[in-house]
Amino acid sequence: MVARDRDEEHRQASWLELFFDLSFVVAVAQVAVQLEHYLAEGDVARGVTVYLMVFGAIWWAWVSFTWFANAFDTDDVPYRLLMMVMIAGSLGLAAGVPQLAHLDFRIGVISYVVMRLAYVAQWGRVFRGGDPAWRPVAAKMIILTTTLQAGWVLFLLVPLDWRIPIFVPLFIIDVAIPISAGWDARMGGHRGHIVERYGLFTIIVLGESIAAATIAVGGAIEAQAGSYQLLVLAGGGLIVVFSLWWIYFDFTTGGAPAGSRSSQYIWGYGHYWLFAAIAAVGAGLALSVEWLIDHDQLALPEQGVAMVVGAAVATILLVLMFIESVAERGYARRDVLMKLVGALWAIGAALLAPILTVPGSVLLIGLMLAAIVAYGVVLEHRLHVEAKVEQMSSGHK
Fold first, then answer.
1. From CA 269, how far away is CA 310, in angstroms rounded?
2. Are 122 and 80 contacting, i.e. CB atoms less than 8 angstroms apart?
3. Which residues, in sequence order, are CB contacts of 136 under 8 Å at separation 6+?
4. Angle of CA points 176, 180, 186, to nearest 5°
5. What whole-number distance in Å separates Cα of residue 254 and Cα of residue 328?
6. Pair 20, 200: CB distance under 8 Å
7. What is the C-alpha separation between 245 and 117, in angstroms, rounded?
8. For the chain, domain boundaries
9. In whole angstroms, what is the distance from residue 348 CA to residue 350 CA?
10. Helix ranges, the chain (H)
11. For the chain, which has fewer Cβ within 10 Å, the N-terminal or C-terminal residue?
């Protein structure tokens, strides 16, 4: 298995990669539902902790193989079969999410180990017949990843009260393996392809948010909740999701860093918080619909319900700002200020929920995001006009 040409033209996601991504939709949807349930019961700290843990496992299984495929996608029969084993493991992980939410890790760990061992087998092919430059990295990836799977199996024996404290360092070790193994994207991999893969996963998570909100709105209609407030909430939620799509795909620098290893890891790992926050938007919208149906059944107050969407949106804006300014170094000062003001606005709108109501807060957050989009569109148009004028001036000279 040799590395693919990093300068390959028209490198696009394969049908198998798209199938692989699709298998993670189920897992993302499950973990978002569990977050919603915890928040509805008022158990915010535990809910957020478990959510970040389980989403982290899902994200890491996806991201580690995505970077591998970016460098070594041979698409032969053994590669396809091992990838299908990983897909089966992802479905098992999705099936075990409800148990994971209650710290029962048996199904989740077994499924995860199956995925990771298939991943190790792929690295074994690189070690046996790959490029000599990749052999040291492949050897370390095989040894470290295999050893850690034994640690995850032993983790099942940990008493319930110790599972969260033990899970965190184990997970940190897991995500640090590529760094320890000396993985450097400059050795191989296609920048355009990895950007597309991350963009596709962003679309998947955004789609899950829309699906969660749609199902919740359908339930509200059946429950004959207030039609005016439901319309405001649904409209505001759509504006939020549409604006987030626009901001991510049109108003970011849009490229994986080609510089230092630290920039690579900040860009690649920083998206974890972005993906988790986008999925949390869906959970927040669904929770907002629950509040609309019967807020007396929720343990969270109005501010708490609105804060789920507000905090998630603020996190998205701040993470985008951090990734681009630190990893890509492509940020102008006005963009930093715009993201900071947007994050503060999202939090402020959530705090005003007792006055605006939850649907009003969501709509206000959506209008703020729409204003960012409008600002970006006008700015891009102005820059385009200035560039054409400068080009015409240069031509006359």
1. 23
2. no
3. 182
4. 100
5. 9
6. no
7. 35
8. 15-187, 198-389
9. 5
10. 15-40, 44-72, 77-95, 97-100, 106-129, 135-155, 163-181, 191-222, 227-250, 261-294, 302-322, 333-351, 353-396
11. C
Decide: residue 132, CB within 10 A, 0-12 exposed, 13-18 middle, 19+ buried. Answer: exposed
* H-type alpha helices, 156-254: 163-181, 191-222, 227-250
Give yes or no for a contact between 278 and 205, defined as CB atoms under 8 angstroms apart. yes
Residue with tokens 């999202």: 346
How far out from the chain centre does Cα 77 lie? Answer: 30
DSSP 4: P
- The amino acid present at 36, given as its one-letter code, is E
Query: Residue ranges of the chain with pLDDT lower than 70?
Result: 1-7, 130, 223-226, 252-259, 327-333, 384, 386, 389, 392-397
Q: How many CA atoms lie within 13 A of 216 on its CB side?
A: 29
Write down the pLDDT at residue 223: 66
The predicted-structure confidence for 198-236, as pLDDT tens digits, reads as follows 999 999 899 888 888 887 777 777 766 667 888 888 889
Which class for 173: exposed (0-12), middle (13-18), buried (19 or more C-beta within 10 A)?
Answer: middle
Q: Are 312 and 277 in contact (CB under 8 A)?
A: yes
Three-state secondary structure call for residue 12: coil
Measured distance CA(203)–CA(248) in Å, rounded: 10
Q: Would you say 240 and 309 are in contact if contact means Cβ atoms under 8 Å apart?
A: yes
Count CB-CB contacts under 10 A for residue 4. Answer: 19
299 burial type by CB count under 10 A (0-12 exposed, 13-18 middle, 19+ buried): exposed
395: its two tokens = 């031509």
Tell me if 186 sits within 8 A of 265, measured CB to CB: no
pLDDT value at residue 218? 78
Of 150, 141, 149, nearest to 123 by C-alpha is 141
CB proximity list for 135: less than 8 A, separation 6 or greater? 126, 127
Helices (H) and strands (E) in the chain, counts: 13, 0
